[in-house]
Amino acid sequence: MPHTESVMNPSGTAPLYVDLDGTLTRSDVLVESIFALLKSNVLMIFLFPGWLLQGKAHFKRQIARRVDLDMTRSPWSESFLDFLGGQRREGRRVVLITASDQKYANAVAAHLGIFDDAVGSDGVTNLSGARKLDHILAECGDGFFDYAGNSSADVHIWRRAKNAYLVNAFPGVIARAQRSANVARLFSPRSNVFGVVLRASRSYQWLKNLLLFLPLIFAHRIMEGQLFLQVVAGFVSFGFCASSVYMLNDLFDLENDRRHPTKRNRPLASGAFPLDLAVAVIPLLLLISIAISLVLPRSFLLVLTLYLVTTLAYSLRLKQIVMLDVLVLAALYTTRLLAGGAAAGISVSYWLMVFSMFFFLSLGMLKRYTEVRALGSTAGNVAGRGYQVDDAELLKQLGTASGYIAVLVLALYINSDQVRIQYVHPELIWLLCPVLLYWISRTWLLAHRGQMHEDPVLFAIRDHMSHLLIALSLAILWMAT
To answer: How far is 213 from 405, CA to CA, in rounded Å?
Structure first.
């Protein structure tokens, strides 16, 4: 088909058609809009099958009608954007063409201001694959266009294009394109995603699951091989479950994370980890967790399910309710203790449960306090949380009080008959009180000075003084035994 005068460039160069998802932006508009809709009302998921039966374009239109995305904060492919701006200044026709709904295509074009036209799915035609190619050919004719994309679905379009531009493409896609098309330029090729998967799943957070070993330690049964292996299995199972939940939480919280000074660098918010790949990895991690849990006592699976349900409720709604959010955070830490006891088949001490609630409530308050302080003197709320700048002083008072109550619970436990039975030198355990008082006071002092910029648990993992105090506490327990 001959190309028409309406799409000819003044310079005579071929028009450049640009994909949106994964190319112009490192995000995926459909995935974003689905999770934004579910976050507002999770029951909407029951409408999805009916929408899909009427076609994918209809499905996208129904979601677009209900969800407004802030496209201004999308993780753009900056080097490619600079290239497009240069092409437009030289008089080249640049067209945005995407399978995302027309509403989002228009929003992107209006924000960037570099496109001559923007074309998306219209509620009837899903503009992907062969339909996208047909649209381009209808405008330009065979071979008189350039196309920029990122996925294997774009290979058949590159074959018909004069030049192919690959943006954020994986090595396998690059190899296929180079075999069948004229690759003019590569922008930000992706490397092996294994490291990004580890970051997205927050594998470092697995250290929190060491709490599962505490019931076994305080029951003085850590040397029993079978029980130890059971808790190790519980640790791994809980780790995979927690990783899947962290990733799911990040999908629900994309918009808020992109407004945050540090959370915007998370793999999902920044686009380092493709959203469609995350959607596939989440159920895989959860299935691995459940498979491991089946070798443990049935009570462990019940606790794991409780953790999963509570965390999902936290991600969808509870974290937006002031004060209830920190209580849920403390409960989730305490749930890890219950999981450790369930994995080993032993009961968790009442004292340990009470201590855990107050101690981790203090850390939850500390986390929110640092987020409020990060707002500085700016009026407003912590994104997605509801806390205000004026709440900082109250959070500090409640958090320090909760931490000191945890020390009081420890002191009362030390004076109980249970300690005299389990320890040869119970008087030595009193030394744990000043150690814990010092750590809690120091962490809150650092937060007050604005010197804590992260999750307090992660702070403890990286802080040398915390390492020293943990070693000292273990030595005290060893000497008392």
So the answer is: 23
